[in-house]
Design goal:
The protein has 17 helices and 18 strands. The strands form two sheets. The chain has an eleven-stranded mixed β-sheet with strand order 1-9-18-17-16-15-14-13-10-11-12, with helices on both faces. It has a seven-stranded parallel β-sheet with strand order 4-3-2-5-6-7-8, with helices on one face. Helix content is 38%, strand content 15%. It is an alpha/beta fold. The chain has two domains: 221 residues, YjeF N-terminal domain (Rossmann fold); 257 residues, UDP-N-acetylmuramoyl-L-alanine:D-glutamate ligase, CATH 3.40.1190.20.
Length: 489
């Protein structure tokens, strides 16, 4: 997993490292990595020589990094212009280097632009874009490059305007993000939360981390960690010569009803794609489940299902007395449980609080934002990591807060984010597939937080796989899980 660090930890690490280096060394390292990425981007648009490049330069070190990178590009023949947004606080040495290399200062953006560097504010920025930066940034989509396409926007360390420590993004009066929307972000030394979570992550574009020697100086615990494919591959249960259906794990699925049989078939489909050897279904959609999935053992009630190593409960279950009875029976089982959809609704009034408190086995809850709001009485807000961790501590459960960047939080304060999400998954039934897959991983013996993180990652990849064929439906996501899992080493 890739650690993500808050501003305070990054600042402390930078200060400690700079105390060991000659003055300006860290900025030159950052500028070198930034210029290298710019060269690669310009190579895709006709080459570096004579390429029109605009530097949006604010005050402080972020502006200095940008100016020094611009100087390197100018020495390679690029036509580099700098728009100084705070001329009285510009990094003087960086500006001198740019001018010495042939760069020029301009009052407005040139009409033809291949590349724009966002060096307006760095990790110390607060409160969205200010004038004249907001006006200049708003004008960028109207410009074109030598090839007729809009300019590529590269953010220096973080997109200007975002809330770095939370990933929140202020909005303008018209409801648009009050921040730079980058195609690429070059981060220095460490990932920051705004590059990994919340609406800011979508504005960062492709993130590249430049090593400036900071890692050994970072102290304490990261704010969160980003799950990677290598983690999923390492955690995923494997078959061996002694494997059989019971040793692989048995997952119970208490979802769906006569009214909502689709929820049952989708959650069972997700479970069947997972690593367990047997799926037991309990509920009112058993005939439809067996028709679509004949390998499943189906009964009408949880009490009749037999032994399982984990339960999935909630999707399409309903909220009547029968649903309450089924949920109580699931919670009484001494095995891990996944609670989703209607099961979360049944928790809101507090009548099942005692059943939750009596449990020793892990619980994973999988709310989307509206379900989170019903459980907590408030929306997740701008800090989705903090909100997830509050609910995890309150419920003593692992919380998987669904979204484009799904956040997983544990009761003891650890947080993970899934980078594989896609808006294509914003369609009915995909959450049912996720819950089934997650239950299968729990039944196979994975710790709750790893099961949640792995399920979210694979589910996101399945959404992307399904989207290749056009608009996505939940059954296509369930089918795509197999194609994704076939790529496991």
């Amino acid at each position: 997993m890739r650690p993500v660090w808050r501003v305070a930890e990054v600042r402390a690490a930078e200060a400690a490292l700079m105390a060991e280096l000659p003055p300006g060394t860290l900025m030159q390292r950052a500028a070198a990595g930034l210029a290298r990425r710019c060269v690669l981007l310009l190579a895709e648009r006709g080459g570096v020589y004579a390429a029109p490049v605009l530097l949006l330069v604010g005050s402080g070190d972020n502006g200095g990094d940008t100016l020094y990178a611009g100087a390197r590009l100018a020495r390679r023949g690029a036509a580099v212009s700098a728009l100084l947004l705070t001329p009285d606080r510009v990094h003087a040495e960086g500006l001198a280097a740019l001018r010495a290399a042939g760069g020029r200062v301009v009052p407005d953006p040139p009409p033809v632009l291949d590349l724009v560097l966002d060096g307006i504010v760095g990790i110390g920025g607060q409160g969205g874009l200010r004038e004249p930066a907001a006006r200049v940034v708003a004008s960028l989509p109207g410009h074109r490059g030598r090839d007729g396409a809009r300019p590529t926007v590269l953010a220096v360390d973080v997109p200007s305007g975002v809330v770095v420590d939370t990933g929140d993004v202020p909005l303008t009066s018209s409801g648009r993000p009050d921040a730079v929307c980058a195609d690429v972000t070059v981060a220095f030394g460490a990932l920051k939360p705004a590059l990994a979570v919340g609406p800011a992550a979508a504005l960062a574009g492709q993130v590249e981390l430049v090593d400036i020697g900071l890692e050994p100086w970072l102290r304490g615990s990261p704010a969160l960690e980003v799950v990677e494919w290598s983690d999923v591959a390492q955690w995923w249960p494997r078959l061996d010569a002694a494997s059989e259906k019971y040793t692989r794990g048995v997952v119970g699925v208490a979802t769906g009803s006569a009214t909502y049989p689709g929820a049952a078939t989708l959650s069972v489909g997700g479970a069947l794609a997972g690593p367990t050897g047997l799926v037991r279904y309990a509920g009112g959609a058993r005939e439809e489940v067996v028709r679509q999935h004949p390998s499943v053992i189906a009964t009408g009630r949880v009490a009749d299902a037999g032994r399982v190593q984990a339960w999935v409960c909630g999707s399409g279950l309903g909220t009547d007395e029968q649903a309450v009875t089924e949920l109580r029976t699931v919670l009484a089982a001494p095995v891990p449980v996944v609670l989703d959809a209607d099961a979360l609704t049944l928790l809101v009034d507090g009548s099942l609080a005692e059943a939750l408190r009596r449990r020793d086995a892990p619980i994973v809850v999988t709310p989307h934002d509206r379900e989170f709001t019903r459980l907590c009485g408030e929306q997740p807000g701008g800090d989705r990591v903090a909100a997830t961790l509050r609910l995890a501590a309150w419920m003593n459960a692992v919380v998987l807060l669904k979204g484009n960047r799904t956040v997983i939080g544990t009761p003891d304060g650890r947080a993970y984010v899934n980078p594989s999400g896609t808006p294509a998954l914003a369609t009915g039934g995909t959450g049912d597939v996720l819950a089934g897959l997650l239950g299968s991983l729990l039944a196979a013996g994975l710790p709750a937080e790893r099961a949640a993180a792995a399920a979210a990652y694979v589910h996101g990849l399945a959404g992307r796989e399904a989207a290749r064929g056009g608009p996505v439906t939940a059954p296509e996501v369930a089918t795509a899980l197999r194609a994704v899992l076939a790529r496991l080493p």
